[in-house]
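Hi all, long-time lurker, first post. I run a small reading group and we've been trying to get comfortable going from sequence to structure in the token notation. Rather than ask abstract questions, I figured I'd post a concrete chain and ask someone more experienced to write out its structure so we can walk through it together at our next meeting. Sequence below, copied exactly:
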Amino acid sequence: MTQRYGIFSMCANNTIKNSYICTMDDSLTTNHILSLENFLPGQSVDCVIIGYDNHELHVLVLKWKNLNVWSLPGGFISKEEDMNTAATSVLRDRTGLKFPYLDQFYTFGNKDRSSLDVDWKVFAKLGIEAEAMKKWLGQRFITTGYFALVEINECNPQPDFLSDLCEWKPIRDLPELMLDHDLIIKKAINHIKIQINYLPIGISLLPESFTMKKLQKLYEAILDKELDRGNFQRKMLKLGIFIRQEKQLTGAANKAPYLYKFDKVKYEQMLKNPNTRFN
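-- Answer (accepted) --
Happy to help. Here is the structure in token form:
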């Protein structure tokens, strides 16, 4: 299996020459030469991976090596794979995270979105021929956005060889991002705001056991507004998809809140009901 590293693939000496990408298979015994012609020109995928921590939504972003440039995990689409497969493999190669499925939410095709203002000479430090990549990356690209909701504590993202850092950043305090990646994140959050009225999202973003207060805080973070505690809890419990556990051992016994977890069987049944709604 070839290790692609999203935008590029890497060979033993980390070199990318002309319009070719050197790759090495998992046995580390056979080198291959992969032409950029094996990728669809002008087509890419970008992944918005969203987590929740300390009452805030976070997004996974990469800092490019030798550059003060931050971006979403993204890459090109091989001619030999469908777009959904490309999204999961790009995410795996760029961050080390393996998800079986990502949700497609929007296609970004503004004619000016591909302007990349960087010092192309820095690519030489990565063993990449600058002119070849400038030509390839300088063409107009249409990118398809994918998103996933994950429990941060269950993820261990790692940067690829093109990146110095692969980190969770609060949405309210993101670094400046390349191209239109800030717009991609905004579109993803807006998409989730719409979906939140139909589907419970806590099963992806919260730990297995949680209080109703923590679930409410999650919804407030996504909707960016305060919710009435009584109404929220009543609507959630009315769904019948929660299992109440022992009281949380904090504070006085008569004030300690109950812990809940999702009833996964009922949750799956509810997902199949198109009339499910939360407001």
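A couple of things your group might point at:
Helices lie at 83-95, 130-137, 181-195, 202-205, 212-223, 229-238, 264-271.
The chain has two domains: 38-117+137-195, 202-271.
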